[in-house]
Amino acid sequence: MRDYDIKFVNKEITPFGGLSLFLKMLERCRFAEQLMTCGLPAQGSNRGYNPIQLIYGLFSGIWCGANCFGHLDVVRYDAALCKLLGWERGADHRAYQRYFNKFTQAINQRLFSELYGWFFSQLTFDNYTLDFDSTVMVREGCQEGAVKGYNPKRPGRPSHHPLLAFVSDVRMIANYWLRPGNTSASTNYLPFLDDTLSRLSDKHVGLIRMDSGFFSKDILDYLENKHLHYIIACRFNNRIKYSLIHEKRWMEVTDGLEISETTYRADGWDKGRRIVMVRQEVEKRPKAAGKTIKQLELFEDEKDLGRYRYSCYVTDLDLPAKIVYDSYRGRADSENRIKELKYDFALDEFVSHNFWATEACGNFIVMAYNFMSLFRHALINSNKKQFLKTIRYELISTPAYLGRTKDKHILYLARSLKTRKSFLAIWEKLKEFSLPYNTEKS
After folding, report:
1. Under a CB-based contact definition with an 8 Å cutoff, are residues 436 and 123 in contact?
2. N or C, which terminus of the chain has less Cβ within 10 Å?
3. Contact 286, 307 (CB under 8 A)
4. Mean pLDDT of 128-147
């Protein structure tokens, strides 16, 4: 190892010079102007930080790797980054917590309906697929709404149970509602769907996909009354299990995968509905999704018990059963979006004692996610689905300092010769980027 001494320099250097690309994109989107017109809660003191600074600070902190409120000090102590953002000083992490405590249920509903509506009105896509899902966020303290409920990984721990809507075609999130931990997947779903559709009011929904937590008569009736096409995974009950076990008309579509269909009418339903049934042989497809049917007295004499994994889907689509099954499989990507929100954007770690403060912060994190997706669509435009962690390593983590000539500021970036060309290519694209943006061309 080479022997060396250390010295200090007086230049204010940031390790996140690549963040300039994302800040330039927000500028080109006129996001700050939109925030000023949507009625953000005002600060009660003249000493309070500008709300727009706090939101930009939250975005910057998350994109740079902050995993909780305390980590947002990474922005505060980065003098060069604060200068790049045009701030005299950065906010302490407690300033973010105090500000989000100003949000209420009414403010959240009005503010984020307007922000999401504005964002998606600037994107060109139509006849899209809308996926709905819920997730569990485990809580360690005594936050409002954090109660015991469905929690498969840590049973008995208090949690929140948020509901999310995903626009599958553009890998973005159209809605986010925080809910107490003891709610079921379908709780408040119908108001949530109405709110989501209002945010996408200028676009046509081609298909709605949901997991078995949303398998209920009220939801099916509502979707049909609205003339919305759907595929919903069925919740297994004894009648559905009996149909699966005794079905004889299986059609093999590939080795170990068979499909059939029937008409099913549950108790309380006004009519029968089409059910697409799938079974996959465990021995040939060990990683197949679905459930095995076992330990039921009704089926003790069946030879095939445990040999297959089964799944079935209720749908109003008049398409071949194989196409219905393939169409539903795309819904699995929403699980990847949830993982990305949790692991890269720390959605479940930014929590306040105040329930509505936690929901407000979560919605701004979702907005940061959507802008990152827009960046990937419009400026990276790669076949590889790069996660934030990869983008942080390849772009954001660029040492830089801010200099000045007679007439303008210059950001000096320390990048290797091999990577300068690709970085400059994105910068040049940003000069021509504007909203509205056609996602179909990317």
Report:
1. yes
2. N
3. no
4. 92
Residue 441 is predicted with a pLDDT of 61
Q: Is the pLDDT of residue 299 over 70?
A: no
Coil vs helix vs strand at 91 = coil
**CA separation (Å) from 334 to 163, 170, 266, 322, 394?**
12, 12, 28, 21, 25
Query: Residue 202 and residue 407: Cα distance in Å, rounded?
Result: 44
- Region of poorest pLDDT, from 98-107, 190-199, 329-338: 329-338
List of residues 6+ apart from 262 with CB closer than 8 A:
243, 247, 275, 277
Please state whether the peptide bond connecting residue 436 to the residue before it is cis, i.e. omega within 30 degrees of 0.
yes
Residues in the chain: 442
pTM beyond 0.90: yes
What are the Cα distances from residue 174, in Å, to 114, 120, 253? 12, 8, 35
Residue 267's CB is within 10 A of a number of other CB atoms, namely 7
For residue 73, how many C-alpha atoms fall within 13 Å in the half-sphere facing its CB? 5
Of 80-84, 115-119, 238-242, 392-396, minimum mean pLDDT range: 238-242
CA distance 374 to 325: 29
Structure tokens at 75: 């922005």
Type of residue found at 303:
K
Burial letters for 154-172: b for 16+ Cβ neighbours within 10 Å, e otherwise? Answer: eeeebbbbbbbbbbbbbbb
Residue 386 to residue 277: CA distance in whole angstroms: 34
Coil, strand, or helix at residue 230?
strand
The DSSP result for 381-414, as a single string, is: --SS---HHHHIIIII---EEEEE-SS-EEEEE-
Across-strand partners of 173?
A: 166
CB atoms within 10 A of CB 125: 17
Please, which residues have CB within 8 angstroms of residue 372's CB and are 6 or more apart in sequence?
22, 63, 388, 391
Residues 126/203, Cβ–Cβ less than 8 Å: yes
pLDDT score of 305 more than 70: no
Residue 295: the pLDDT is 45
| Cβ atoms of residues 152 and 231 within 8 Å | no
Give the pLDDT confidence score for residue 296 in this predicted structure: 45
Tell me the Cα Rg of the chain. 25
75's enclosing H/E stretch is helix 73-76
Count Cβ atoms below 10 Å from residue 426 Cβ, excluding itself: 19
